[in-house]
Design a protein that fits this description.
The protein is 40% helix and 12% strand. The protein is an alpha/beta fold and 431 residues long. Helix 2 crosses helix 10 and helix 17 runs antiparallel to helix 18.
């Protein structure tokens, strides 16, 4: 095993121009700062980049950070306004990954690029990655699992299969004959198919890379227990502490992936699992609490509240995730929206759908109804006899399930009032 002082890593990479990068929106700035501060200690020879999938708009000063800040507008994305609208914040942050990595290789001339999710904390040099690339690997992947999951908790092995064999919180790439063909292939897949859709076998950028080791030569799979320790593999990782260092199966911890951790309510460790609670983790609990303290020191309380530039239409109305799904699934909407779907406006999503009548059934209501088997079962015809019941359910229940803002509620609520008044008038007049 290479020494964890970093000297061996630096000797391996002495003549290699290397970058490490992460991708965030503004609200994750504290995470990027925490990661990059650690990398500056353990890999000062690596150039550090943070790609911001957002518009900074004065929220922070990019030049004051200890890494290069690159806004998404700098990347050569195809049909960028359509690209931004097509995806949720999670999907967009992952969809731009091959363009960000390609930009570092092609525009900045790096020989090797390491990608790390922003919710990772580094505790030692990534020597094994350095050596694997130095030995001729084109890419390094880390699997979610290196052992079986035998209980009835989440995630199960089936859950992991659905999400992808390899965790794309980490990826290392080197200049190689396969580099450009791979990045072009990946870009082609992620332009339209970087979605969370388990029914169709897709999970953002990650699921596609199940194919990578079979399609491209010189792809290495790193199974070292001290890398990418996280809730999905903690059953196979024994964490201890000795002489102030955290060890994993007796080896120095390299990096921990705090995926799904809520710093304001950390007891569940991750919202994506139910196998562990914080109090069950022994020394790893200290690891989690120290990480949260780091985030707070790096501005978590402020940055987590910053708005997302691509979360609203031009008229200021919030964009719901179901609207993005509908947009990408309906070519006629894409055609109607043109080059900038953000210009559609609240009125577009509030337009009446189906047969005219009261109360109002809007396009947004239809989209939600079509996406929910339970709603289709309970409200079989929302344009005729059950439209009143559905409209009532929309303004009293469904809006809270989706966090629907007032601009999409008011027209329906007003139409319900009119419908009630009209019904009362007919009853009193015998009409």
């Amino acid at each position: 095993m290479f020494g964890r002082t970093g000297q061996a890593c630096q000797e391996i990479a002495m003549h290699t121009k290397k970058a490490v990068c992460t991708i965030i929106s503004n609200n994750y700035l504290a995470y990027a700062r925490t990661l990059m501060n650690a990398l500056s200690r353990f890999h000062p020879e690596w150039d550090r980049y943070g790609f911001v999938v957002d518009e900074i708009s004065g929220l922070f000063a990019p030049t004051a950070e200890n890494f290069h800040v690159v806004e998404i507008a700098s990347l050569p994305l195809p049909n960028r306004r359509q690209f931004y609208f097509r995806y949720t914040i999670l999907e967009l942050n992952t969809a731009v990954k091959p363009w960000a990595i390609a930009w570092l290789f092609q525009e900045k001339g790096y020989d090797q690029v390491v990608y790390l999710d922003a919710d990772i904390m580094v505790y030692a040099p990534l020597c094994e990655v350095e050596k694997t690339l130095a030995d001729g690997a084109f890419a390094v992947l880390i699997p979610h699992l290196t052992g079986p999951l035998s209980d009835d908790r989440r995630p199960s092995e089936l859950d992991i299969l659905r999400a992808g064999t390899y965790n794309l919180g980490f990826l290392a790439l080197a200049r190689h004959d396969n580099l450009l063909p791979f990045l072009q292939w990946w870009q082609n897949k992620l332009e339209f198919s970087c979605v969370v859709n388990f029914a169709e076998g897709l999970f953002v950028d990650q699921k596609w890379l199940d194919l990578m080791p079979g399609m491209y030569a010189d792809v290495a799979v790193l199974r070292h227990p001290a890398y990418n320790v996280a809730y999905w593999n903690l059953q196979h990782r024994h964490i201890s502490k000795s002489d102030g260092r955290f060890l994993v199966n007796g080896e120095q911890l390299v990096f921990f992936h705090f995926s799904g951790l809520n710093p304001l309510a950390p007891d569940n460790l991750s919202r994506h699992q139910n196998r562990f609670r914080l109090d069950m983790l022994g020394p790893a609990k200290e690891l989690v609490l120290a990480y949260i303290a780091n985030l707070k020191d790096n501005g978590f309380a402020t940055s987590r509240l910053w708005p997302y530039a691509f979360g609203c239409l031009h008229d200021g109305s919030a964009i719901l995730d179901v609207m993005r799904v509908y947009y990408r699934q309906h070519p006629e909407v894409e055609a109607e929206a043109g080059d900038d779907p953000f210009s559609l406006g609240c009125d577009y999503w509030n337009k009446p759908w189906g047969k005219k009548g009261t109360p109002l059934v809007t396009l947004l209501m239809r989209i939600i109804w079509e996406s929910r088997p339970d709603l289709r079962e309970n409200f079989r015809d929302i344009t005729k006899g059950q439209r009143y019941r559905f409209a009532r359910a929309f303004v009293s229940i469904i809006i809270f399930e989706y966090g629907i803002p007032e601009c999409y509620i008011a027209p329906v609520r007003n139409s319900l009032k009119l419908s009630h008044l009209f019904g009362s008038f007919l009853w009193h007049t015998g009409g």
